[in-house]
Amino acid sequence: MLLAVGSQNPVKLEATRIGAAQALSHPDLTDNVLDVVGTLVESGVRSQPIGDDECITGAAQRAIAALEAVPGAEFGIGLEGGVVTLRGGLFACAWCVVVDGWGKTGMASTGRFQLPPRVAELVHQGMELGEADDLVFGRNDSKLHEGACGILTHGKMIRSQFYSPAVLLAFIRFINDPLWAVDN
Hints:
Elements: E1 2-5, H1 10-23, E2 35-38, H2 52-69, E3 75-86, E4 89-100, E5 105-109, E6 113-114, H3 117-124, H4 129-137, H5 147-152, H6 159-170, H7 172-175
Parallel strand pairs: 1-2, 1-3
Antiparallel strand pairs: 3-4, 4-5, 4-6
């Protein structure tokens, strides 16, 4: 089974491998070998999305563009990380959107975790979260590796592990398709 991911970020590709493998290993589904292919596409949103709506929009546009860009793909997958302000704090999160060629869409989000004040301040000033993490924690390209969650949990949950449950949960729509049928 060919899965097209709207990114070439190794974290997003690994999260897709993990989450899709879990989702598609249901005993009622045939065993499929997953081929995950990343493609560069535009999200159509800011480089640092703010709020759930912007993250969902970016993930959806990535998923649709990826499906269109990779011939033979059964699913297009978009992952969009972002930040949300809640109760005075800035929280990191991400959304996953999965689309197929028949117009079906599944969506899910990751959990959320609060960012330290200095990182939040830099993001509020317009810096992308990954850049703010690199500056505050003395890293390079952390968003391509452990991400903010990996840094803040001291490696106990890296970014691909944080994103993969959202991929799994976005596939709910597809692994339970009859539940979406409308009775007339």
